[in-house]
Design the sequence.
């Protein structure tokens, strides 16, 4: 059985200009790995309608699930909802259930639900809302695309509420071994191991710190018995 | 004058599985902003030949410069050089100048230049080498694609040697103001400001920390006089 595939779109000029360091990609990658959904591709695009629409269309067609991060707030540069609606040829307007969620939230806070805040109730036709217990403004799901906030605390909460609703695959198991030799010495035996275990992914990640160098060898796969067997052989070759 | 555009490809299963948190994208984004080259798109792809080739072809055709990170080491999972060669229909083989660089490096270290290490001297036909003062194995430039290492220290050194050779644009200037109000209150005036200064990019980045909330408003543009004028108006509206 192969795992469901997925892709992510990180939206925002602030990421591409280097002003903000994205953390949502790394968080989602870890969470997807736990539930056995393979993250195959990530695209980071600017606040540009064509870039966002193009990425949504391309990735939605290519993968089982797509997750987006960013651009669903109340300000003029928050254009993700409109772009996603356009990518699927759907109308978009303020929706009553989303408005009610915002109204209740701002009533509680004694804040006015003004025109700008109401933008966050604009939801593409036929979309399903994603709960936002942090700051109320919902994300939404349309076709296979999950549209979520860019603020990390909100993004992470939305991921937590979305992932249990998706059918995962077998979680990827991994084992690793630190080998204190240069990658050039490891490469030969490692290549043979990779050939003998074609269902496993075997990676070598060099490190160099405080005068010590070597590589972290990581063996990943869905079949625990195979991962064990490969690790046993790896230890026989490189273990002390 | 518009700035040169660019894209980045981050290559590696370890990034997409969440095992490793990429830092090269954020570093490159900051460096490109300094020299006035706009980073328009980033793609993170797995160690899959089709994914790498496809991204190289698509981004090379769409942007002035492309930068890649990862997959040029000595182990079996380092397939970037081959994929880039294939993307451009070029032959790839061990090249004498690259071999000489490695030979000198390993001689100095008293290490054998074995078959695995020699893989790092495989360079696509017609490519120009990128110097690697950290660990010798060179990157390379083919057409408009700069192929660099994934290890952050090496990547950063390669970026430092490559960027001065590229024609940059006007560096993006930015000024920012922290406003301690909800984005929903800021959105209206901010949208008007964005309309009145169409050449500037005006972003709003909400924060919420230790019970205090608000948004960081960032005004970016190439024309310092315009950035100043917009910031003066912003302060008149939101400054204390």
Sequence:
């Amino acid at each position: 059985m192969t795992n469901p595939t997925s892709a992510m779109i990180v939206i925002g000029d602030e990421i591409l200009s280097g002003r903000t360091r994205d953390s949502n990609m790394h968080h989602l990658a870890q969470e997807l790995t736990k539930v056995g959904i393979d993250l195959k591709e990530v695209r980071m695009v600017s606040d540009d309608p064509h870039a966002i629409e193009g990425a949504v269309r391309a990735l939605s067609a290519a993968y089982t699930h797509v997750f987006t991060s960013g651009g669903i707030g109340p300000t003029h540069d928050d254009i993700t909802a409109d772009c996603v609606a356009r990518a699927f040829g759907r109308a978009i307007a303020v929706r009553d259930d989303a408005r009610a969620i915002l109204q209740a939230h701002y009533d509680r806070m004694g804040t006015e639900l003004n025109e700008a805040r109401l933008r966050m109730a604009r939801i593409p036709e036929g979309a399903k809302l994603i709960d936002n217990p942090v700051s109320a403004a919902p994300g939404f799901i349309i076709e296979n695309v999950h549209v979520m906030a860019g603020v990390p605390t909100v993004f992470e909460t939305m991921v937590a509420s979305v992932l249990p609703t998706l059918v995962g695959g077998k979680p990827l198991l991994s084992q690793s071994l630190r080998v204190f030799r240069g990658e050039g010495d490891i490469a030969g035996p490692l290549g043979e191991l990779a050939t003998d275990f074609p269902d496993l992914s075997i990676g070598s990640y060099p490190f160099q710190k405080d005068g010590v160098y070597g590589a972290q060898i990581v063996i990943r796969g869905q079949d625990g018995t195979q991962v064990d067997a490969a690790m046993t052989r790896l230890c026989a070759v490189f273990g002390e």
About this structure: The first strand of chain B starts at residue 5 and ends at 11.
